[in-house]
C-alpha cells in the first residue's frame, strides 16, 4: 500500500507555487506515495490542478471557530497519514499533526512551533542562501529518506506540464496572429511585495516595444479584482506613448487564469503569485524584486529554466526597497533580447541542483 503523505503550504499563491518542485519530488519517488495537500480555499483550485497532488484538504485558517478546527482534526486523523511535511511551520499546524497521531512530522527548525515535530531541519531561510523552492525540495528529500523512498533524479521544469496542443489552444485566445510574441504584464502586487510603479511599467514596456521592432508584440495587462484601476491606468499611459495594450482575458478562477497564461511567451511582474505560476509553466519571466535579504531575487526565484528567467532589483548602493533606482533601460534591453531569441537557446536543463539527487540534510 502506498504511503500517505500530508504536505502543508497554507499561505499565499506564490508560496504554494514554489512548493510544486517539492511535490514533484515526492510524487516521482519510488514506491510512489499518495500525496495530499492542506491549503486554504483560495489556492485549492491550483492544488486540484497540480499533477503532483492526489487529494486536497481545505484549511479553514486560524480564525475558524472551534467546531471547524475540530472537524479538520477529525478529517486528518481519519485519513491515517504516514507522514506530515510542513513547508512553512506554524504552531496550529504542528499541533494538528501531533494530535492527529501522524507518526513522522517534518518541518523547518524555526520558532517554537518546531516542538510539535519529531524531525526538524535547520535551514535559516532568512539568510536567503538559496531559492525558496530549493529549501522546499530539501525538506521533501529529507522526508523521502526517512520513509526509505527513492528519488534517483530531481525533476526539472516545467513543473506544470502543458502539452503543445493545449498551449496552442490557449495561445490562439491571446494572440492576434502566430507571428506575435505575447507578453503579459501584471502591475499589481496583491500587497505582498514592493513593485514598480505604473509609470515605471509604462516606461519599461515602451522601451521594450521600440527595441523589439520589427518583431510584433502583443501586450496584455492582467490584474486581480482589486487591481483593475492599476491595469486601466497602465493601458492609458501606454496609449499616450503609442503602445497598444489590451486587458488579459477574463477568467472565472485562478486555475483558469493559470492555464490561459500558458499560451503566453513571457510574464513581467513583481514577486507575485502570477510570476510564480508562470515559472511553474516554464514560460519566460522578468521579475522585479526589492533588495532586502528576506526578499532577494535568489530567494524568490521563479522555478522555470534558468535561460527563461530574468530578475531585477535596486543596486547595492541604493535603498533596498527603492524600486525607482532600478535601471529600466538595462532591464528593457535584457527583456528584448530574450523576446527576440538571442537568449533562451540553451539546452533543456534542470534548476534544482548540480548533483541531480537529494542532498543531505542535518537534523536538529
Automatic annotation (TrEMBL):
InterPro entries: Glyco_trans_9 (IPR002201), LPS_LOS_Heptosyltrfase (IPR051199). Transmembrane segments: none annotated. It comes from the Bacteria. Keywords: Glycosyltransferase, Transferase. PANTHER family: GLYCOSYLTRANSFERASE HI_0523-RELATED, TETRAACYLDISACCHARIDE 4'-KINASE-RELATED. This is Glycosyltransferase family 9 protein.
Amino acid at each position: 500500500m502506498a504511503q500517505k503523505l500530508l504536505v502543508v503550504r497554507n499561505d499565499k499563491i506564490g508560496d504554494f507555487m514554489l512548493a510544486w518542485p517539492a511535490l514533484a519530488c515526492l510524487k516521482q519517488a519510488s514506491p510512489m506515495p499518495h500525496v495530499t495537500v492542506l491549503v486554504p480555499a483560495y489556492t485549492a483550485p491550483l492544488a486540484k490542478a497540480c499533477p503532483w497532488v492526489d487529494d486536497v484538504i481545505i484549511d479553514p485558517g486560524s480564525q475558524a471557530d472551534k467546531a471547524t478546527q475540530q472537524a479538520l482534526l477529525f478529517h486528518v486523523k481519519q485519513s491515517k497519514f504516514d507522514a506530515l511535511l510542513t513547508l512553512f511551520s506554524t504552531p496550529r499546524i504542528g499541533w494538528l499533526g501531533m494530535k492527529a497521531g501522524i507518526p513522522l512530522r517534518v518541518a523547518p527548525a524555526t520558532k517554537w512551533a518546531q516542538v510539535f515535530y519529531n524531525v526538524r531541519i535547520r535551514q535559516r531561510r532568512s539568510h536567503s542562501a538559496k531559492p525558496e523552492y530549493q529549501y522546499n525540495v530539501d525538506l521533501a528529500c529529507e522526508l523521502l529518506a526517512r520513509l526509505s523512498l527513492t528519488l534517483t533524479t530531481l525533476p526539472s521544469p516545467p513543473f506544470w506540464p502543458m502539452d503543445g496542443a493545449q498551449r496552442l489552444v490557449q495561445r490562439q485566445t491571446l494572440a492576434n496572429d502566430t507571428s506575435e510574441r505575447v507578453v503579459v504584464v501584471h502591475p499589481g502586487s496583491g500587497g505582498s511585495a514592493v513593485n514598480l510603479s505604473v509609470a515605471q511599467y509604462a516606461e519599461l514596456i515602451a522601451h521594450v516595444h521600440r527595441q523589439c521592432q520589427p518583431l510584433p508584440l502583443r501586450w496584455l495587462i492582467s490584474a486581480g479584482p482589486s487591481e483593475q484601476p492599476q491595469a486601466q491606468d497602465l493601458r492609458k499611459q501606454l496609449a499616450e506613448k503609442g503602445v497598444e495594450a489590451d486587458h488579459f482575458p477574463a477568467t472565472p478562477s485562478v486555475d483558469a487564469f493559470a492555464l490561459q497564461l500558458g499560451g503566453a511567451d513571457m510574464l513581467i511582474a513583481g514577486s507575485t503569485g502570477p510570476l510564480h505560476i508562470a515559472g511553474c509553466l516554464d514560460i519566460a519571466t522578468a521579475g522585479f524584486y526589492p533588495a532586502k535579504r528576506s526578499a532577494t531575487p535568489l530567494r524568490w526565484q521563479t522555478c522555470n529554466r534558468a535561460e527563461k528567467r530574468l530578475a531585477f532589483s535596486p543596486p547595492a548602493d541604493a535603498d533596498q526597497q527603492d524600486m525607482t533606482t532600478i535601471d529600466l533601460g538595462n532591464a528593457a534591453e535584457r527583456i528584448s533580447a530574450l523576446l527576440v531569441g538571442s537568449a533562451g537557446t540553451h539546452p533543456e536543463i534542470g534548476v534544482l541542483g548540480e548533483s541531480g539527487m537529494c542532498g543531505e540534510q542535518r537534523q536538529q
